[in-house]
Design goal:
Strand order of the largest sheet of chain E: 6-7-8-3-9-10-12-11
Structural class of chain C: mainly alpha
Structural class of chain E: alpha/beta
Chains: A alpha+beta (514), B mainly alpha (310), C mainly alpha (273), D alpha/beta (326), E alpha/beta (335)
Number of helices of chain E: 12
Distance between the termini of chain C: 19 Å
Number of strands of chain E: 12
Largest sheet of chain C: none
Strand content of chain C: under 5%
Bound molecules: adenosine-5'-triphosphate, magnesium ion
Distance between the termini of chain E: 28 Å
Order of helices and strands of chain E: EEEHEEHEHHHHEHEHEEHHHHEE
Oligomer: heteropentamer
């Protein structure tokens, strides 16, 4: 997936990564922030029970050597690593797992990881304040912990997320954890200049033998893409996440194009149509017409500069249950017009299209789509709001349609739940989608113990979504990272390309630092 | 001197109080919240967690109660707890203050070191090539969007010439400071050049300069002994106003150059709706403005005896 | 009154911008919004697209032309709002004095102390991006200078013989302010407003850069420039033309302001040494 | 008192200067206990050095500053600190001619507007009548009808002062206060204006208060003269008494200071000249304010403030030694 | 008066001789003659008066003697001879040596003529440092002495005061001290008392006359007050619209004014005691207005206002006619 790794990794050197999603890190107490930006640092300093294995495309055990699953799939018994040391030198034990997960459920604090830990039995009681301890978590011995689930899910999908990292109690309780983070990660904290950079150095007692390679990992915080471009070309940074504009430019450059890493990320971009607020959207034919009216192919090619994959349905192509035989809606304005006429809107209709300024799934796309919709008689009016307000708008339902990006992986089941009629709007059913067959299919998939059977059902649900077209399926993100020729060991992480496991990274002697 | 100080500090109090009230009211009606902002890359947030965060941040209390609490705490120097980092805002700000100050001061230094002499030279030869060129330059400097200018500087000095690093704070050394300081300093530079020119021309026409000439002084002495200080009195106001508002103006430059100052903090905080941090930053900007202007007043007192004894 | 080169050049540039804005529907080649054609994306300047096309394949020339409407609206309307607020407050404060003066002074100090870009940013965040919000944000935050000028002028004009005479003749305060003070302070106010317009256009660009500008339905120069910042190296024409439009217009306004100042400044007109 | 057009009764005007924090607030006694009368048709000359309170006195009479103490009766009205005048009525009784003809005309109003607006404001609604009165008055002050639509900057200083006078007379007041009406004019123009003022006085039966520090002018036009020093009237009387038999040393100093090439030796009574600087109104010397400069100064003068005392009927002087003739 | 002092250099000609002075005023594309054909002489120790209405060119005449004309004004022609030496073309450096040392000047506005940011002692001391190479310490001592000479009370304190702490009269005394510091041969006083009160004015004039007499300094006294000038000067020249129209011995100009303008000026102003002697008489008016520099009439510039105007006045500039005692008058109808 990356440059052929013929060389043997070199020890030493400094890796300079970038944090491209904004001008600062929110918090180094990784439990408090679910942002992708913060988990870049999180992956350096901290560790979670599982990791995402990009090569296999599924979660893999990280802090445990092995796991035994009970027959009903509800009880997981983990044999923990006995050589995982916190940066303060203390060895990790089962207590740390239990404490960390219990902390996340603290009912007085809003830890975003609660939504994952809640799947453990008894966690809800802690959340409600009814219990002090999560009954579903049991310490067998120092390095064995038993986890009883409340619902049948794959805990790997839950506990690889940064907000569920395992933290040392004694350090957290000191009260200045944010400025003095101590974790299990391959690099330990040295310095954080807020708004500028995070400096970390090799943790000698890291549990993977021979790793990490680099002496230092620096995260440079650079939200401004134009500036990042200059810095990358100026060899001041080793990695840079590219937007469409730069993707094209870098691809066209004979030198830069050699250092490009692409991955199909598990994000689906779409226009969400609010069936509750605008009548035409309640008609399936109208929704299909919209999918036919827009030349998404062209937009992906020209505007997104091929830095995206044409979306077919809701589940992304990187999803394990993705049906490769499905074909996206064809660009067919005539058919769109016909469908509209059948639905009773021969002259089209009007709606207001809320959008954020985002370049990949915001205003620029809307601006390109408006003329296309206009051609079939649909008059859309763009309404710009801040990205911050978008989620709120979606949750409140105060929109007619909005364009946005949704995480659609890695757990396909929970992804598809968003269209279940029992899922409230505040959770994620933004279209107010309600389809009995779909609900039934999904419920069955949840009960299915056979993975094959489950995958089958999920594929079916996804096909229903395709036909019902509750949204305009736009694209799946193609994440692109440019890296300098001396940097090795990157992995194409489809959950978030910027999240790299830095213990694998190494720089050869061409690196300009030292 | 002391009196002026006391009076100025006295004047600051109502201004500060008004600012505190104003920003509190402004940001209490802002749409979006820190919680909804967390979901900005498509990750949905758990409603229960969001509710808990609201409570934790005290956003469930009535507005008035919150204001009283906030104002009361502010008086004793407590700016509240940041939503994002869950640390005291004062700590957040403390970390950003020095870079901010450094950038502001460097920019002002650039502006003064170039602008004032330029204005002087221009005024001593009105209508000359130097005059015309520097004034056209000054107006042009005032007419460029800052981020564009910064970007051009970046491309030119970092990418093309490779003289300077393009972004960031580095180890706090000088090289990283130069480009942002220039980008930020250009508009006060232009204003200072123009003000200085006008002030010097003004003073050159003053009666006492004619007196000095009638004493038989050489033009150089007239300028160094009589014109400079008097012109300075007029320039100091501009210096003060510019300097005072520069920290706030730095937002764009800081953002562009990934400079870890209060401006970047403010913008990030606004977009993430970290309201306590936003309020704290604005308060610091205002305080900085007021302090600089107090210093300017003191400078006045030092330069101008009419005020000292007036 | 002799008009200097400043006034001519500046006035000329501004007049061109105004003319472009007014005649936009006629001189534009295509619709700036609806004529997006991705097949034409990012073409360099040519006969068909004199300024080239942008990422959505829209004619940059037409967008710059329509952009003049938005940018000038922003500049002119918000500056008029500022002038009206500033003059109303400053004039009444200077004329009446007393607690009202203290109050206005305090308010002005507050406005002056909060950096106006920050204030505008806050208002934009509250109102959400958009033209009306922008007009409000920039129209409410920049009046402190005109207020100060108006107040100072009112203070100095108030002791002029003709204002005293008007009071003696029985003129009421509003009549005095309107007929005696206002016409005589218009000069410096216009200067401030002219210079302020340039500042406002730049502020709009800065807000766009920070992500809080205006966008749909029509483009403003600031947002075009801000959007094009990443392509400065690969498709320079996308940023150069809106950049030049901003630069020349603001330059024009600044020169015009300077020129008007030379005309209105009493110092320049008293000839006796 | 009925036959008085204007009477001032122990009038005082004080200004608060300085600020609470900078050196404290001080009281500036700009006018300090002035008692004066003006009869209809009479011209009262008011002389005194710069800053002695002449203009403030004028503004107080006009009702533009309220007295701190004392009372003003003018026309039928009484003004005191807590009783501001009815401006409209006031306007028809008292008017003022200002010193600086450049600053006293609105540069953005034509002569016609300057003269017609007040008429309309005071209820003369008929267009023709307004026009007639404007043209008539313009003729009276020596302006031609075609001047009506010009702006002030198109006129010379003397002409502007004529406009100023016309504005003062347009409402047909009974009393006109002339605050140094000629001192800003070219020397060769002054006679025109003085003559004009005297003609108008006779023609319209006006009373004047003529403020000036040019004693020649005051002597020429006044019926009675009052001399002010640091806010107080120090001498008051008929013009002949004041100029021929001045009793206050300050009056004498004033007269002695006038250079007169014809009577050089005669007028320069060496002993009458004042020495030193005028004290500031902010902290006047105790006792007689003139004492530091007075050639007659005695110990008494620094202790006791002399009151206005009668020298002869209608001739008052505030000097302990008013009966000592030198 | 015969206060003339015979100094070594330059022999015994007049101290200052101005001949056919012309001052050009650069307008928008046009050049005006702000002053034209002005000639006068000042003897050593003599007090010479220059009288005229506002704007007639008195100040710029004085400035041209100092070599201080600045754009848009410039010397258009004529000779200025100081002590036998022509200085109209002197270099800037030469003029600088003359200024302050041999020719000094006092200005009209004592409020603005002193540097507000510098203690007055220093401003006086500057003269000694500049012209006599004294050290600052020594210069300050002498400044104190100079202040004492102009009768400023407690000069040892006053030298540290700033101009705004002094009253107008005091400031003008400081100006006199500055001007006389280096014992100049000529003192140009440009309306030194206009901004002062009458009683203070008399004192300042006396002081100036007295000090100059003591030092043998000649005075060029500029004023628009004919009475004042006549009182203090030996000879008086009257200017009108950029020209000298009459020049006579001071007493004579009042007794026998020869130019209609001079006569008009003397008659037009009410004089103290006049009403007592003759009752109130209508003042004699000079009709019309002072012409502006852009619109000087042809011929005799007084002609539009002259009661005795004839055709020749409107076309021909009158030549100077001699009067007794070196006087001249420029009027077609004189004699
Ligand atoms: N509004 C005011 N506030 C404070 N002080 C004032 C005010 N108006 C006048 N004064 C002071 O009152 C005193 C008298 O002023 P006024 O103008 O009456 O003098 P004047 O005799 O008219 O002088 P001049 O001859 O210069 O016109 C002065 O010391 C002046 O500074
Ligand atoms: N710097 C200048 N620029 C243009 N015109 C000037 C300048 N200085 C003087 N003048 C003009 O030259 C003429 C003579 O001016 P000057 O100052 O000599 O008059 P003055 O006789 O001294 O008058 P005053 O009594 O007002 O001082 C005037 O018409 C004046 O307008
Ligand atoms: Mg006055
Ligand atoms: Mg002069």
């Amino acid at each position: 997936q990356q440059t052929p790794q013929t060389q043997t990794p070199r020890k030493g050197g400094t890796v300079r990564m970038t944090a491209p999603y904004g001008g600062s890190l929110t918090s180094l107490d990784i439990h408090t922030s679910p942002r992708a930006q913060d988990d870049i640092a999180g992956k350096i300093l901290h560790r979670t029970l599982y990791n995402w294995d990009s090569a296999k495309g599924q979660p893999a055990l990280e802090l445990a050597k092995e796991v035994a699953v009970s027959g009903d799939g509800m009880v997981y018994t983990y044999k923990l690593l006995d050589n995982a040391y916190f940066h303060n030198g203390r060895r990790m034990t089962a207590d740390d797992i239990i404490w960390s997960y219990t902390r996340i459920m603290d009912s007085t604090k809003g830890f975003p990881g609660a939504r994952y830990v809640r799947f453990i039995k008894g966690a809800v009681d802690v959340e409600k304040g009814a219990a002090k301890e999560i009954s579903g978590l049991r310490k067998i011995d120092d390095f064995t912990v038993e986890m009883t689930l409340a619902e049948r899910v794959n805990p790997g999908f839950l506990f690889f997320v940064g907000v569920t990292a395992i933290l040392p109690k004694e350090e957290v309780e000191k009260g200045n954890f944010n400025s003095n983070p101590v974790g299990l990660g391959p690099f330990k904290f040295v310095e954080h200049v807020p708004g500028s950079r995070l400096v970390t150095e090799r943790w000698e007692k890291f549990y993977k033998p021979g790793k990490p390679y680099a002496d230092k990992v620096i995260v440079l915080i650079m939200g401004e893409a134009a500036a990042r471009d200059v810095a990358f070309r100026n060899k001041e940074i080793d990695t840079s996440i590219l937007g469409p504009v730069q993707y094209v430019a870098y691809m066209a450059d004979p030198v830069l194009s050699k250092g490009i890493l692409e991955v199909a990320e598990m994000f689906t971009r779409s226009m969400v149509m609010n069936q509750a607020s605008i009548k035409p959207f309640q008609d399936k034919r109208v929704r299909q017409a919209i999918n036919h009216a827009i030349d998404a192919e062209l937009i992906v090619k020209r505007l997104a500069k091929d830095k995206a994959y044409r979306a077919v349905s809701w589940l992304p192509s990187s999803s394990p249950v993705f049906d490769k035989t499905m074909k996206p809606y064809a660009f067919d304005p005539e058919k769109a017009k016909k469908l509209l006429a059948e639905a009773g809107y021969p002259n089209g209709f009007e709606f207001e299209w809320t959008t954020s300024p985002n370049e990949s799934w915001g205003l620029p796309i809307v601006e390109a789509v408006l003329p296309m919709l206009n051609r079939v008689g649909i008059k859309a009016k763009a309404k710009l709001i801040e990205t911050t307000v978008l989620t709120e708008t979606a949750m409140k339902g105060t929109f007619e349609a909005y364009i946005g990006s949704n995480v659609t992986g890695p757990d396909s089941l929970s992804t598809l739940k968003c269209f279940h009629s029992k899922t409230p709007r505040t959770a994620c059913n933004y279209t107010a989608f309600n389809n009995a067959e779909y609900d039934k299919t999904l419920d069955e998939a949840g009960q299915a113990s056979d993975p094959e059977k489950q995958a089958e059902l999920l594929r079916k649900a996804n096909a229903i979504l395709y036909d019902e077209a509750p949204v305009w399926f736009f694209n799946y993100n193609k994440a692109v990272m440019a890296y300098q020729p001396w940097l090795h060991g990157l992995q194409a992480n489809p959950t978030e390309l910027a999240h790299q496991y830095p213990e694998d990274l190494w720089v050869d002697e061409r690196s300009p630092v030292k | 001197m002391l009196l002026v100080l006391v009076r100025r500090v006295g004047n600051m109090v109502p201004t500060l109080a008004a600012v505190i009230a104003l920003i509190f009211v402004l940001f209490s009606v802002i749409p979006g919240s820190f919680m909804s902002g967390l979901g900005d890359d498509g990750r949905t947030m758990d409603p229960a967690v969001m509710e808990r965060m609201r409570k934790e941040m005290g956003l469930d209390q009535p507005l008035l109660e919150r204001f009283v609490k906030y104002a009361g705490a502010t008086v004793v120097g407590d700016l509240g707890t940041s939503f994002r980092t869950r640390e005291p805002v004062t700590k957040l700000i403390a970390g950003r203050l020095w870079p901010s100050l450094k950038l502001t001061m460097a920019a002002m230094l650039v502006a003064m070191a170039v602008g004032i002499p330029l204005g002087f030279v221009a005024a001593l030869r009105p209508g000359s090539l130097i005059d015309t060129a520097s004034m056209v330059g000054a107006v042009s400097g005032l007419s460029l969007p800052k981020f564009w200018l910064g970007l051009l500087l970046m491309y030119f000095f970092a990418l093309q010439l490779k003289w300077l690093p393009s972004f960031g704070y580095g180890d706090g050394g000088l090289t990283h400071l130069i480009l942002p300081a220039i980008a930020l300093g250009v508009s006060p530079l232009a204003l200072l050049a123009r003000t200085t020119r006008a002030a010097v021309l003004d003073v050159l026409n003053a009666d006492f300069v004619r007196t000095a000439r009638s004493k038989g002084m050489s033009e150089r002495r007239v300028v160094t002994w009589h014109v400079m200080r008097n012109a300075l009195v007029l320039v100091v106001t501009t210096v003060g106003l510019q300097f005072g508002s520069l920290m706030g103006q730095a937002v764009v430059v800081e953002k562009l150059f990934s400079w870890p100052g209060l401006g970047s903090l403010l913008v990030d905080s606004v977009f993430q709706r970290d309201i306590p941090a936003v309020q704290g930053c604005i308060l610091v900007f205002v305080l900085f403005f007021l302090i600089i202007n107090t210093l300017v007043d003191l400078a006045y007192v030092a330069i101008d005896p009419r005020i000292r004894y007036g | 009154m002799r008009l200097g080169a400043n006034t001519w050049i500046g006035g000329g540039l501004f007049a061109v911008a105004l003319a472009v804005a007014v005649t936009a529907p006629w001189i534009a080649l295509t619709d700036p919004v609806m004529d997006a054609n991705l097949l034409n994306a990012e073409l360099p300047p040519s006969m068909e697209f004199p300024f080239g096309t942008d990422a959505q394949g829209r004619d940059i020339y037409s967008r710059v032309v329509y952009g003049a409407q938005i940018s000038l609206t922003v500049g002119v309307v918000s500056q008029i709002a500022n002038s009206i607020i500033g003059v109303t407050l400053g004039l009444t404060a200077g004329y009446w004095g007393g607690w009202w003066d203290d109050f206005v002074n305090g308010l002005t100090n507050v406005m002056l102390a909060i950096p106006s870009l920050i204030f505008a940013l806050a208002i934009m965040a509250i109102l959400g991006p958009g033209l009306v919000s922008l007009l409000i944000a920039l129209g409410l935050t920049n009046w402190s200078y005109s207020c100060r000028i108006a107040r100072a002028q009112a203070l100095s004009l108030k002791s002029q013989g003709y204002v005293q005479a008007a009071r003696i003749l029985g003129y009421g305060p509003f009549r005095i302010m309107f007929t005696q003070l206002l016409p005589n302070m218009l000069g410096p106010i216009i200067v401030i407003a002219t210079l302020g317009m340039g500042g406002t256009i730049l502020a709009e660009a800065a807000l766009s850069f920070l992500g809080l500008g205006i966008r749909p339905p029509f483009p403003s120069w600031g947002s075009m420039l801000s959007d094009a910042r990443e392509t400065i190296a690969i498709a320079p024409w996308v940023s150069i033309f809106p950049g030049l439009a901003i630069f020349l217009t603001v330059l024009g306004l600044n020169l015009l302001g300077d020129g008007l100042r030379d005309i209105f400044d009493p110092q320049a007109t008293t000839r006796r040494a | 008192m009925a036959e008085q057009l204007l009477s001032l009764d122990d009038l005082a005007v004080q200004f608060k200067v300085g600020s609470m924090l900078a050196g404290g607030i001080k009281t500036l006694k700009a006018v300090d206990g002035v008692t004066l009368d003006v009869k209809p048709g009479e011209c009262l000359g008011l002389v005194g050095e710069s800053g002695c309170g002449k203009s403030t006195l004028a503004l107080a009479i006009m009702g533009l500053v309220l007295p701190t103490r004392g009372r003003i009766h003018v026309g039928g009205q009484q003004i005191s600190g807590d009783k501001p005048p009815d401006r409209m009525e006031m306007a028809r009784t008292v008017q003022m001619v200002f010193q600086d003809p450049y600053a006293s005309l609105n540069p953005r109003q034509t002569v016609r507007r300057t003269l017609a607006d007040p008429l309309r404001l005071h209820g003369v609604g008929d267009k023709a009548e307004v026009e007639a009165r404007v043209i008539d008055l313009m003729a009276k002050v020596g302006l031609r009808p075609e001047h009506a639509d010009r702006y002030p900057h198109e006129f010379s200083g003397g002409q502007r002062q004529r406009i100023g006078i016309a504005r003062a007379l347009i409402l047909k007041p009974k009393l006109v206060i002339c605050d140094e009406p000629v001192s800003a004019l070219d020397v060769s123009i002054r006679a025109q204006i003085i003559n004009l003022l005297l003609e108008l006085k006779d023609e319209m039966g006006l009373a004047y208060i003529m403020i000036s520090h040019d004693l020649g002018v005051v002597e020429h036009v006044s019926d009675r003269v009052a001399v002010m020093y640091l806010g107080r009237i120090v001498e008051q009387g008929g013009w002949q008494e004041i100029f021929e038999d001045p009793r206050h040393p300050y009056t004498r100093a004033l007269i002695a200071a006038i250079p007169d090439p014809f009577h050089r030796a005669a007028a320069t009574v060496a002993g009458a000249k004042a020495k030193g600087e005028i004290a500031s109104a902010l902290n006047p010397p105790p006792g007689c304010h003139f004492n530091p400069r007075c050639p007659l100064k005695a110990d008494l003068c620094t202790v006791e403030t002399p009151l206005l005392g009668t020298v002869a009927p209608g001739h008052l002087a505030a000097c302990h030694f008013r009966d000592r003739i030198i | 008066m015969t206060g003339a002092r015979v100094t070594g250099a330059g022999g015994n000609g007049p101290l200052l001789k101005v001949e056919n002075l012309r001052i050009a005023l650069q307008g928008d594309g046009v050049t005006f003659n702000a002053v034209e054909n002005v000639s006068f002489e000042i003897g050593r120790g003599e007090a010479f008066g220059l009288v005229g209405e506002s704007g007639c060119g008195k100040s710029i005449t004085a400035l041209s003697v100092m070599g201080l004309l600045r754009r848009p004004l410039s010397l258009g022609g004529g000779r200025i001879v100081l002590d036998g030496e022509e200085i109209q073309d002197a270099s800037a450096a030469e003029m600088r040596r003359l200024r302050g040392k041999r020719v000094a000047m006092i200005f009209q506005e004592p409020m603005t003529a002193l540097n507000p940011l510098s203690p007055v002692g220093r401003q006086i001391a500057e003269m000694f440092v500049l012209h006599q190479g004294a050290s600052w310490r020594e210069a300050m001592d002498r400044a104190e002495e100079a202040l004492r000479q102009v009768r400023v009370p407690s000069p040892e304190r006053r030298i540290r005061d700033y101009p705004h702490q002094l009253s107008g009269g005091m400031r003008q005394r400081v100006m006199i001290a500055i001007a006389l510091a280096c014992g100049p041969d000529l003192l140009i006083a440009d309306e030194p008392t206009t901004a002062l009160d009458v009683t203070v004015q008399a004192e300042i004039i006396d002081l100036m006359a007295e000090l100059c007499a003591a030092k043998g300094t000649a005075i060029l006294m500029i004023s628009h007050d004919l009475g004042l000038v006549a009182n203090m000067c030996n000879r008086v020249a009257v200017m009108y619209a950029g020209r000298i129209i009459e020049s006579q011995v001071a007493d004579a100009i009042f007794a026998t004014p020869s130019h209609p303008y001079t006569r008009g000026l003397i008659d037009s102003l009410p004089r103290l005691g006049e009403r007592a002697r003759r009752g109130r008489q209508r003042l004699t008016e000079i009709s019309g207005v002072v012409p502006s520099i852009q619109a000087y009439p042809a011929g005799c510039r007084f002609n539009p206002r002259c009661p005795a105007v004839t055709d020749i006045c409107r076309t021909t500039v009158p030549e100077a006619t001699s009067l007794p005692a070196d006087g001249i008058v420029r009027c077609h109808h004189h004699g």
